[in-house]
Amino acid sequence: MNLIRTRNPYQVYIYTCFLSQLFFTFIFTVNLLYHVKIVMLDPFQLVLVGTILELSVFLFEIPTGVVSDLKSRKFSIIIGYFLIGIGFLMEGLFPYFATVLLAQVAWGIGYTFTSGSQQAWIADEIGEERASLAFIRGAKAGSLGQVIAIPLSIVTGYFMISLPIIIGGICMIGLAVYLVIFMKEENFKPLNKIERISTWENMKGNMSKIIFYSKASFIIRMLFLIALFVGVYSEGFDRLWMSHFFEVSNIGALSEEKLVVITGAIQFIVVLVSFVALHLMNRSSIHQNLRHIYIALFIGSLFIILSLIGFAFSSFVFGLLAFYIVIQVTRKVMFPLEDIWLNKIIRESSTRATFFSVKGQVDAIGQIGGGPMIGYIATGFTIKTAIVVSAVLLTPVLYLYKTILKSTRV
Q1: Comparing 76-80, 134-138, 192-196, 327-331, which segment has the lowest mean pLDDT?
Q2: Helices (runs of H) and strands (runs of E) counted in the chain
Q3: Are 77 and 117 in contact (CB under 8 A)?
Q4: So what's the pLDDT on residue 130?
Q5: Cβ atoms within 10 Å, residue 182
Q6: How far apart are CA 145 and CA 270, in angstroms?
Q7: What are the φ and ψ backbone dihedral angles of 408, each rounded to 5 degrees?
Q8: Which residues of 291-320 are buried (b: 16+ CB within 10 A; e: fewer)?
Q9: For 210-216, which contacts have Cβ atoms below 8 Å and span 24 or more sequence positions?
């Protein structure tokens, strides 16, 4: 109770990390099932939902970041969680394709208001050194929130699939209200007119550096190309895996209550296996050697491609489940390795954040371009065909990683 009522920025940050991940996971445990069984979206509509979300994030990432720098970190974060809550509340209350699309726009924009603002706020309030510890503690608190949320979502969704989405949306709005009352912002200094001009000039300068380094550095070009192909393949699979799982295994014929339990259990297994895999990776020395990272990423990409094909052609529940878990766990392990890779090859700290942002934007472009194509294939042919095409679209990364390994051979 003292933690809830505290106005200490460090504690508020940890509490916010825990609650935001708790609410997000509470919602997303049943979100795709809701789209498939209640809203009854077809494969193209499922993928289009994800494309609209990615497009909203892509278009509003920079403008909302400017609001955070010029107006207030606190204001930006509160607006963000409020919009996220409104989006999910709208989605859960009105099971129609049009309202689901509007909800993606609302919570996509809300996400851009919070993205980066929380980290900037806590760094302003407690200093960069203490903020590093807060980031680690916040990540741990978020992981705890995910583990707690899945069983809660299963129990709540057992009564009504849309209920976790509605309750989660209300809770997100409640989180915004909590931050209005308890979030302090004492060390934020809005940019003056000269600094605003300087900020835009720095952004232009950083983009110029990125273009220069991309032209000069073979490795950076490869990294961005890989991010593009990963984006192209991922959106279709993320939106269509459940429809394929239900269609092939005949599980879709079960009652909605049983489907909630099954899909929640699958997500819980993924979370637990991913936690173990990441723990083992953290204890290894793989992150200390770039060549070892490249080899791990090559093997991980090969696992994903083979598992996508296996998932597409498997006709047994346990086979589908095994391939899905391999894909998801491998992706979760590869994410931090990709971040370490980029962090190691960028020498200038002043442009590092911009490089990370650009990599994310390249991935989003891939999802925006690849998603509708995969959705069209799934609708015009079969979901199995669409998943196989997704695997084919990812195969160029194997050549790119092999090329990188050849170029770095000692």
Answers
A1: 192-196
A2: 16, 0
A3: yes
A4: 76
A5: 17
A6: 15
A7: -105, 5
A8: eebbebbbebbbbbbebbbbbbebeeeeeb
A9: 210/351, 210/354, 210/355, 210/358, 213/351
HSE-up (13 A, CA, CB side) for residue 191:
15
DSSP 3-state of 255: coil
Q: What angle do CA 105, 336, 327 make, to 5 degrees?
A: 75
User: What is the mean predicted confidence (pLDDT) over 246-252?
Assistant: 81
22-40 pLDDT tens trace: 999 999 999 999 999 999 9
Q: What is the mean pLDDT of the chain?
A: 83
Q: DSSP per residue over 199-249, as a string?
A: HHHHHHHHHHHHHHHHHH-HHHHHHHHHHHHHHHHHHHHHHHHHHHHHHHH
Pairs from 55-60 (Cβ < 8 Å, separation ≥ 24): 55/108, 55/364, 55/368, 56/104, 56/105, 56/108, 56/109, 56/112, 57/108, 57/111, 57/112, 57/364, 58/361, 58/364, 58/365, 58/368, 60/108, 60/109, 60/112
Angle at the Cα of 56 from the Cα atoms of 51 and 61, rounded to 5 degrees: 130
CATH topology of domain 201-410: Growth Hormone; Chain: A; (1.20.1250)
Concatenating the DSSP letter of every residue in 338-363 gives HHHHHHHH---HHHHHHHHHHHHHHH
Dump pLDDT digits (tens) for 85-103.
999 999 999 999 999 999 9
Q: Which CATH number fits domain 1-183: 3.90.1010.10, 3.40.47.10, 2.60.120.620, 1.20.1250.20?
A: 1.20.1250.20
| Distance between CA atoms of residues 239 and 242, nearest Å | 7
What residue ranges of the chain are covered by domains with CATH 1.20.1250.20? 1-183, 201-410
Which one-letter amino acid corresponds to residue 337? L
CA–CA dist 20, 23 (Å, integer): 5
Cα torsion 247, 248, 254, 255: sign: negative
In this prediction the pTM is 0.80
Top-confidence residue, 168 or 353: 168
Could you give the CA distance from residue 111 to residue 105 in angstroms, rounded to a whole number? 10
Give, in degrees to the nearest 5, the angle at Cα 371 between 370 and 373: 65
Cα separation of 109 and 60, whole Å? 6
Q: Which residue has the tokens 């995969």?
A: 374
Give the residue from 26, 27, 18 showing the smallest Cα distance to 150. 26
**Contact by Cβ (8 Å): 327, 308:** yes
